[in-house]
Records
---
Amino acid sequence: MVDALFEVMGYETNITHYIRDGGKDIVAKTNEIGRSEKVLIECKRYEENIGSDSLRSLFGLVHAEKASRGILVSSSDYTSDAKEFGKTNGIELINHSDLTQLMDSYLGSRWSIYIDRIINSRIKYYL
């Protein structure tokens, strides 16, 4: 779902392998004139709030791979420590509410009706 979203947002995306993904789930790139970036996206499907450990891992990976930035997308929210770490170190945090707003903006307010189709199209694309 996040892969489809970033593609609609204008990025060229690649989903990493499920096992040994190296701490990233999606690599999103854009090479538009005046805007060239490599974004590492980590997705977490958690019920509990995410702490700063996950952000520290992504932060290290962003620097090791010389990426422009890192984004952590979560189905839950973030602890205050994680929010502070993200703000201080340039890791963008997208929680469930933010993700829903982005999906509404880029895929239309009825995207949830087609969620199975969206996900299945991405699975077929990467198989």
---
Amino acid sequence: MSNGFAKCPKCEYGYNPPHVRTCEHCGASLRRRDAPILIILLGLTVLGMVGMGTFFMRGQQGSIDPRQRSVTRPAGNGEIKPSVNSVQSGMPIVGGGQLKDAGVQIYRQYIDVPSVPKGVFNYGGSTTFATLRSPTVLKTIEAAFPQFKLRYTEPPAGKVGSSKGIEMLIEGQLSFAQSSRGLKAQELAKAKLKGYTLEEIPVAIDGIALYVNPQVINGRLKGLTLTQVSDIFTCKVRNWKDFGGPDLKIIPITRDRHAGGTADFFFEHILQKRSFGATVRDVRDTTEGIRTVANTSGAISYATASEVINQKTILPLGIAREKGQDFIRPCGDTTCSTVNARAFADASYPITRRLFIVIKRDRKLDEQAGIAYANLMLSDEGQASVRQAGFIPLR
């Protein structure tokens, strides 16, 4: 740290002005590194007599650090090992060192998470996170921290999604954002111009499901390869009969990739940055997409698997990476009432990605709120909520 203060021994966070003896982020005591030489000499004499006692006492203090209450600790140097390899290979992955630098640790229960601020905090962004914004999850967090009020906030105009949420975060309309894709260079640059940085914290793994109008499914159509999916959404192929399906016009439906993280991911990693075809229809959100596919003969769309399961008016498709490989369904059972957690976790399902909390590194209350929320989601209790919401825990 600056101004003669050593780094915070607990969270290694922030800078503090002169004469402040506690960390502004976690409240831990700070130690000066510019003590007068005379004090240092006297201290060395004393240490010669009580050094071993001091060492023992410090070891005992470390044993009651709240972070030690976590059931699952990071391996080795503190890195959180990813559970799967995402198809989004070009996406920057946040390692354990970066999590530590951001003040993110691993705790057992919500109540164990320190430095949860007081106030009302706007958050929003990715529609993929809808199940993690459920009243059940929010009430559990509120029960642990009544002073930490989370308020989901949609944009005043336009379409919802990861990109819009990050934009609102940069403009100061949100305290932190939820994103189904990694940060882009232009977003980092915009934040830098405003005097702060953005950081992405991964909290879950998700699978993207392709789903169709029930009329598309017949005895011969078992699923699609990634190449066939790309051919559909670039409008290279326009009839289901070309894939062994019925003689039915293909109606591809997508969300705006400039607003939604899922659509942007789909554009970059499934279409390989080839443009959506001219006849692809655009919808505002997943709810409208499911409704449109259900009511449109020959329609197909995609969404996070947790939003597709338990839908009775549409049918999810199996996906294969290449021709000749088995089609893997996004559903975990024959009735599609659960996600295919095993296939998402071991990456046998072809389309998986990570979900992020995007925090504003401004050394102010917004950053504290974002770090607290990331800590909550990465705690054992938070990762249980991740699983219940239809995602795969990161740890």
